[in-house]
């Protein structure tokens, strides 16, 4: 299987096209009795053969290898789809930072000029206050009135938000993301822990807006998953929710939640549900506690009590024998431990 060399929107759509094709085969195969490593091994065998090579195998072997390959292919394609999305998000953030840096470079001279003007005008006003001079006369002595008005207008154009952040430059990136994000939300199935439920409701709202063509974010849309950094951009001046920033916030946060493990992707290998790593509940229920032969108690409270008792006993022993321990010295109520000498054999 060839992985996309370029992290582009076209590469994402090609991966999704392959994924939907394999899914449309609707393979109904029960693999519960087969170890995952065995499936991966069969998949690697299938990946080495050209289509014509399968003619040499009998039908049972040929079908088994093909099915194992397709099952693993679904996982690989899902991984690739989210990986491309992850990179696209990181690229958008990176471009936003670079855009802010470029603005600062381009406007640096003009901004410095405005700072100098502000300092001169401020000094003139202070002098006018002290000497009782007409402030307008003092200002015009520094800068003609028409120049002052023009300078103020230029300053408004140069000004960024007081707590400026590159996120206010990301709205232009929304349309680039929209070229693939509706497909992403349609094809990938997300599952979450309880902490991420508001985000999942927001994902469902965006999906519904994509399918119905609605442009306005409905009232009551969840917002408590939106970080403080995004809050000031998600709301417009009239208090309504900005569709562009709301959707970008959902996409950014869903990426973060997936990477943290609070959100899983169905049919994904790298970001699957944590419970899939564990023994299934129905299987565990059939295991007798006496058969498990665990080295610790099945009770959390008993285990913690035993560990606490063991720790206290060990501390007491060390306290009683600290003077006899090699490499340890207590002086002025301070514990000094000698440096360990290197004991690696020369032949190692």
Arithmetic mean pLDDT: 82
Q: What strand line-up does the widest sheet have?
A: 1-2
What percentage of the residues does DSSP assign to strands (E)?
under 5%
- Rg, nearest Å: 32 Å
Give the secondary structure arrangement, pairings included:
Elements lengths: L8 H15 L12 H13 L10 H73 L3 H8 L2 H14 L15 H4 L3 H7 L2 E3 L4 H16 L15 H7 L8 H18 L2 E3 L15 H5 L3 H4 L7 H22 L6 E4 L2 E4 L11
Antiparallel strand pairs: 1-2, 3-4
Helix pairs in contact: 1-3, 2-3, 3-4, 8-10
Describe the model.
Helix content is 59%, strand content 4%. By secondary structure, the chain is mainly α. The strands form 2 sheets. Strands 1-2 form a two-stranded antiparallel sheet. A two-stranded antiparallel sheet has the order 3-4. Helix 3 packs across helix 4 and helix 8 (197-212) packs across helix 10 (243-260). The longest helix is centred in the N-terminal third of the chain and has 73 residues, at 59-131. The protein is extended.
What is shown here, in short?
With 348 residues, this protein is mainly alpha-helical.
Describe this protein with a few key phrases.
348 residues; mainly alpha; two-stranded antiparallel sheet; 4 strands; 4% strand
């Amino acid at each position: 299987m060839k992985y996309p060399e370029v992290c582009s929107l076209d590469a994402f759509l090609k991966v999704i096209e392959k994924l939907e094709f394999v899914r449309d085969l609707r393979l109904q195969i029960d693999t519960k009795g087969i170890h995952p490593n065995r499936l991966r091994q069969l998949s690697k065998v299938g990946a080495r053969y050209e289509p014509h090579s399968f003619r040499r195998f009998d039908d049972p072997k040929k079908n088994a290898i093909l099915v194992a390959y397709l099952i693993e292919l679904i996982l690989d394609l899902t991984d690739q789809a989210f990986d491309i999305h992850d990179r696209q998000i990181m690229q958008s953030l990176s471009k936003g930072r670079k855009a802010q840096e470029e603005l600062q470079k381009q406007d640096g001279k003009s901004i410095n000029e405005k700072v100098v003007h502000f300092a001169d005008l401020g000094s003139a006003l202070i002098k006018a206050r002290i000497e009782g001079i007409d402030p307008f006369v003092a200002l015009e002595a520094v800068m003609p009135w028409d120049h002052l008005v023009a300078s103020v207008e230029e300053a408004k154009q140069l000004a960024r938000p007081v707590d400026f952040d590159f996120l206010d430059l990301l709205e232009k990136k929304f349309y680039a993301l929209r070229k693939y994000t509706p497909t992403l939300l349609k094809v990938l199935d997300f599952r979450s822990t309880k902490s991420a439920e508001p985000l999942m409701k927001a994902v469902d709202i965006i999906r519904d807006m994509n399918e119905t063509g609605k442009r306005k974010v409905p009232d009551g849309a969840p917002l408590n998953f939106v970080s403080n950094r995004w809050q000031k951009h998600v709301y417009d001046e009239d208090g309504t929710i900005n569709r562009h920033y709301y959707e970008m916030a959902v996409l950014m946060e869903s990426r973060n939640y997936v990477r943290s493990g609070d959100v899983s992707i169905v049919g994904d290998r790298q970001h699957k549900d944590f419970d899939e790593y564990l023994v299934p509940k129905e299987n565990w229920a059939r295991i007798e506690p006496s058969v498990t032969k665990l080295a610790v108690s099945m009770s959390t409270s008993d285990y913690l009590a035993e560990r606490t008792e063991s720790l206290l006993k060990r501390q007491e022993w060390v306290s009683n024998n600290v003077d006899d321990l090699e490499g340890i010295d207590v002086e002025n109520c301070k514990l000094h431990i000698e440096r360990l000498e290197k004991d690696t054999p020369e032949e190692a």
